[in-house]
Design goal:
Order of helices and strands of chain A: HHEHEHEHEHEHEHEHEHHHEHHH
CATH architecture of the largest domain in chain A: 3-Layer(aba) Sandwich
Radius of gyration of chain A: 21 Å
Mean pLDDT of chain A: 95
Largest sheet of chain A: 5 strands, parallel
Strand order of the largest sheet of chain A: 7-6-5-8-9
Oligomer: homotrimer
Shape of chain A: globular
CATH superfamily of the largest domain in chain A: Aspartate/ornithine carbamoyltransferase
Distance between the termini of chain A: 20 Å
Largest interface: A-B, 35 and 41 residues
Chain lengths: ~400, ~400, ~400
C-alpha cells in the first residue's frame, strides 16, 4: 500500500461520524452505525498500511490489554496479542484456573481488580447461549462504574472476541477481505454470498460466525443466502436483524434448506459447521444443572444428527454451481479456520481438500486482517481524533524497526 | 490530583532519607525506617498523580520483572504486572509446573538462571510458616551473589508479594487508603483501628494480613486493637513489633478476645479470617512429612474450630458500636478482598452483605493503590535519585497515551 | 567492558561476511560459515557490552517473538524472553494445550496464524529423533511462503532453541564463555576439550548438546575428545561433521570409550548424560505407535543400562588427570545445567559436589551468555547492517534505565 493510498483512507476516515465510539465498547456489529463500521474498516486498512511502511503505531507508552478466553484459542489469542502489541499495550491474560475467582467473587469485583491499568479488555465467551454477551456487558458495566467512582483512572474498553451472538472481529476481518478482494465496497452491490452450514464430525460449534455474517454482510447491499439443514436454525432475533439490514441496504436476505440452492451463482461461499440453536440452549441448561449424563446423551444425539447431513460439504461439484465468471473462475471460498477438511483433518468434513487448497492463501489473508480489525476497534475507542493521530504517524512517525 | 499537589509530594519526598532503599529489597515493613515507609507512600501517590495526568512513568526501555506465585492469585498478579508495566518492565512468570526445577535444582541456581535480565523479582509464598520469607531471602541472597560474581549485570530487587510473616504491598496500600480517606497522615493520631478475626467457612488463610497490619499501623500513632477468639493467636514476634512500634509512635496496641470490644468506638475496622498460627505450624510439618491423612484431619478440625466462632461477623449491629461521628457515619470498613460475604459468596461469612455493599467502592479504591505501592518499592530500589526523576516527568515528560 | 573494546568488536564485526544471515533462519551451527559464527559471537559480546553500559538495544518499537516449547524449560524460556525483551520484542508463547491445534490443523496453517506480527519464532523440540529439526524447517518454510504470498508483512526468523540434532544457542554460549575465559579465540588452538557422557539416574536426555559441541568446537582448532560407554553413540552424521571440521580447522576429533582417556590433559571438560541414539530412535517409534507398555519397558531397560556406568562421573580423581597448568589449576568444568550432582540433586550423578561447587560461578557465567547469543542471532537475521546499528547505539544511544 503506498502512502498516497493511506492518505486517501485517512481522508475518508475523517469524513465519517464515529464520535460515539470514543470511550465505548464493541459488542455487536448491529449496534453500530454504517459510519462506525466503515471507520473500523478504514482504520484497520490504515494501520496495516503504516505497518507495511515500517511506521510505528505505538500509541501507548504503557498500559494493559486484559484478555479472558473461556474456550481454547490460538488465532484469536494471537490476534488480540498482536493488536495490543501494535498499539503498545501489554497483554495480561486472566487465567481463571490460576485465579481466586472460584472463591465466589462477583463479576463486578473481579472486573475492577484486574483493570487498574487496563485500557482494553478482550473476552471470548461463546459456549453458552444467553451467557457470553451478557457476561461481557456485565464486565463492561462494572468497569464503567469503577471508572465513574474513581476506582479506575481510565475506562477500559471491552472488545467482544466472540460471544454466543456475534463474532465481530472475525466478520469484520472477513468483510475487509471481501472488500479488498473485490476491489472496493462499491463493487459488492448485487453480489451473492452463501452462508451455509456444513458437516463436521465434531460437536457444539458456536453460532456466532453464521449469525455475525448474516448480521453484517446484509448491510452492504449483498444478497446473503443462509442455508442449513432443518433443525440447524440460528437465533431468530439475528435473522430479524439481517432482514432489516437487507431492506435498508437494498440487498437481500434469503433462507433455504439447500446448500446447492445457496451456492447457485454465488460470488462468495462460507460453508461452516455449527450446532443447532435449540441444542445449544439445551446444553446450556444441562451444564447449569451439572447433568453430565444428559450432556453426554445430547452429544451423542447431536453427532448422530450431524451425520445425517454429510452431503453438506463444499465439494468440487458444488463449487461448479457458483459464479464461474469471478476473477478466480468460481466463488471466493471463505472460512474462519480451522476447517474440517475431508481426508486431511477428518475423514469427512466441511470441505473437499482440493477446494480448500485452492483457496488456502486467500483464507490466510482473510485471517491476517483480524489483528488490524481488533486494533482499529481499540483505537476508535481510545482516541477522540484517530484520523489526526494516524496522519501524524504517516507524516512524521518513527520506524517500527529502527 | 493537580500538578501543584504532585510538586508538593515530590518536595516532601526529597526531604526524606531513603538512601538505604537503593539497590535493596523489600521484605518486611518493620525492617524499614519511618522515612522509608513515608517515601514509599509518597512515591506511590506521585506515580498515581502522574498517571492521572497522562504522563508516562516508563523509566525502563527494556528489562524484566520476574514473578513467582506459589499460590493462586488474581489481584496480586495483576497488581505486579501493572506496576511493572507502569515503569516499562515486562513480566515473565516463573511457572514452577513448566520448569525443570523439579529435577532437584538448587534455589541459588534457579534464582540466577531466571535473572540475567531481571530488574525485579516479585514472590508470593505464604502457605507455610517459617518458609515463605526465608525462601525470598534465599533468592535475594543468591542473586546478590550472582551480581557480585559478575554473573548478573544488574542486581534484581526482591519485592515481597506476601509471605508467612508480612504482606507489605497490601498493608502499605491499606495505609495509603487510610491516609487519603482521613485527609493526611497527621489526622490519624488517636484514631482507632480494629484488626479482628472473622468467621469464614474456608481453611488455612494466611496470617500475613493481620500481622502486617499490626506491624505497620502501630507506627502512625493509631490505636490498633487486635481481637480474635482464643486459639487464633498471631506470631508472638510480630506482636512484639507492634508493641514497640506503639511505644515509639505514641499510639497503642491492645489485644482482646472480643470483636465487640475491638469495634467499640473504632474509626476503622478490618475484620478478616485467618488460620491459627499453631495450626499453620502443624500443617507445615504435616506437608513436610507428606502426611495426607494428617492434613485432612487437621482441615476438618480447623473448620470445626472456625465454626465455633460464627458470631465473629461484621454485622450491622457491630458497625453500630463503631465511631458514628466519622464522615461516613460509622467506621471505615476495610478488607484485602476477596471477602466471604454472608449470603453472597457463602452462607455465613466475615461480613454482612449490607455492610460490605456500603463500603464496596471504598474497598475497590483501597485495592487500587497496590500497583502504585509495588511500583514505588521498585522505583526506590532502582534509582538513586527518584525525586529528581519524578520531577523530570512532571515538568517535561511525554504522555502515556499519545 | 569499556567503550573502546565495544568499538573494537564492532570494527571486527564490520569486516565479517554475514550477509546470508539477513532474512534467514538459524537451525544448525554447521550450516553456517566461520564468518557467520564469528558474527554471532561478536554481536553477543557487543550487546552485552552495551547493556553493561546502560545503553538501550531496543531496535523494535513493537513486534512479537513467538515461542513454542515442546518440553519443560526454565532457562531456555527465560533466555528467549530476555533476548526478545533486550531488542524490544514481546513474547507470546504458543501453549499447545490451550490452542485448537488438536483439531488436526496443519503445521502450515498454525505457523501462519501465529505469525501475523511475529518477527521471530523460537522453538524447542528435542524429544524425538528425526522430528524436532524437521518440524522447525516445516514451520520456517510455511512462514516463508506466507511472507511471499503476502499473508505476512514480515518474514519471521526461526531460531532453534534445541532440537534432536543441535542446540546452537547453548553451544554458542558455551563457545563464547570458553573464548572469554581463555582470553580470545586465538588462544584456543591446540587446547583439548573432553565432551564425555556421564552417569545420570534419569532417562532420555537429548543428544543435542554433545552433538552440538562436537559439531561446533571442532571448528576452532581445538582437540575435541568425545567419550562415552559403548552403546551411547551419537548420530553418525554429526560425527562426520566433526571430523571434517577438525580437518579444515587444523584441530582434532577423537573418540573413545574411556572418560579417563578423554580427561587426560584436557583444558576443558564437559561431562553430561545423554540417551543412546538407538534408544531414542526406538522411543520415537514407540511413541508413534502409542505403545505405552513398550515405552515403560524401554525406560526400565535404559535406566538399567545407565546404571552399569556409574563410574562415569566427574570426580576429584578424574579432575586430577586434566591439565593442572591452567589458570584454575585444572580443566575448566562446563555444563549446560541443571546437572545431576552427587549427593545434592541425586544419590549418584554426573559430577561430584566439590567439583561442581568449585566451578559454579563460572558455569553461571557460561549460562549468562545465552540470552545475548539468541539476541545476536535475531539481530543478524533482522538487520542488513547490524554493525552500523550497534555503532549508533554506542555513540548516541539512549539509556536502558533512564
Amino acid at each position: 500500500m503506498d502512502k498516497l493510498k493511506i492518505k486517501g483512507l485517512i481522508k475518508h476516515l475523517s469524513r465519517l461520524n464515529y464520535r460515539n465510539m470514543y470511550e465505548n465498547d464493541f459488542f455487536l456489529t448491529w449496534e453500530k452505525t454504517d459510519d462506525e463500521i466503515a471507520a473500523v474498516l478504514a482504520v484497520a486498512d490504515i494501520l496495516r498500511g503504516l505497518r507495511e511502511a515500517n511506521l510505528s503505531t505505538r500509541f501507548f507508552d504503557s498500559g494493559l490489554g486484559v484478555s479472558l478466553f473461556r474456550d481454547n484459542s490460538t488465532r484469536t489469542r494471537f490476534s488480540f496479542v498482536s493488536a495490543c502489541n501494535l498499539l503498545g499495550l501489554t497483554v495480561q491474560d486472566l487465567d481463571e484456573g490460576k485465579s481466586q475467582i472460584a472463591h465466589g467473587e462477583t463479576v463486578r469485583e473481579t472486573a475492577n481488580m484486574i483493570s487498574f491499568m487496563a485500557d482494553v479488555i478482550g473476552i471470548r465467551d461463546d459456549m453458552y447461549i444467553g451467557k457470553g454477551n451478557a457476561y461481557m456487558r456485565a464486565v463492561a458495566q462494572s468497569v464503567l462504574e469503577g471508572y465513574r467512582d474513581g476506582v479506575l483512572e481510565q475506562r477500559p474498553t471491552l472488545v467482544n472476541l466472540q460471544c454466543d451472538l456475534d463474532h465481530p472481529t472475525q466478520t469484520m476481518a472477513d468483510m475487509l477481505h471481501i472488500i479488498n478482494t473485490f476491489g472496493g465496497v462499491d463493487k459488492l452491490r448485487g453480489k451473492k454470498i452463501a452462508m451455509t452450514w456444513a458437516y463436521s464430525p465434531s460437536y457444539g460449534k458456536p453460532l456466532s460466525v453464521p449469525q455475525g455474517i448474516i448480521g453484517l454482510m446484509t448491510r452492504f447491499g449483498l444478497e446473503v443466502a443462509l442455508a442449513h439443514p432443518e433443525g440447524y436454525e440460528v437465533m431468530p432475533e439475528v435473522e430479524e436483524v439481517a432482514r432489516k439490514n437487507a431492506e435498508v441496504s437494498g440487498g437481500r436476505f434469503t433462507k433455504s434448506n439447500s446448500m446447492e440452492e445457496a451456492f447457485q451463482g454465488a460470488d462468495i461461499v462460507y460453508p461452516k459447521s455449527w450446532a443447532p440453536f435449540a441444542a445449544m440452549e439445551k446444553r446450556t441448561k444441562l451444564y447449569g444443572e451439572g447433568d453430565e449424563a444428559g450432556i453426554r446423551a445430547l452429544e451423542r444425539e447431536l453427532l448422530k444428527q450431524n451425520a445425517e447431513h454429510k452431503d453438506w460439504q463444499a465439494t468440487e461439484n458444488l463449487m461448479l454451481k457458483t459464479n464461474r465468471k469471478t476473477a478466480f473462475g468460481e466463488a471466493l471460498y471463505m472460512h474462519c479456520l480451522p476447517a474440517d477438511i475431508t481426508g486431511v483433518s477428518c475423514q469427512e468434513g466441511e470441505v473437499a481438500a482440493a477446494v480448500f487448497d485452492r483457496h488456502r492463501v486467500a483464507m490466510y489473508k482473510e485471517a491476517s486482517y483480524k489483528p488490524y480489525i481488533i486494533a482499529a476497534m481499540m483505537l476508535l475507542a481510545k482516541f477522540r481524533n484517530p484520523a489526526d493521530k494516524l496522519a501524524e504517524r504517516l507524516d512524521c512517525g518513527r520506524p517500527r524497526v529502527r
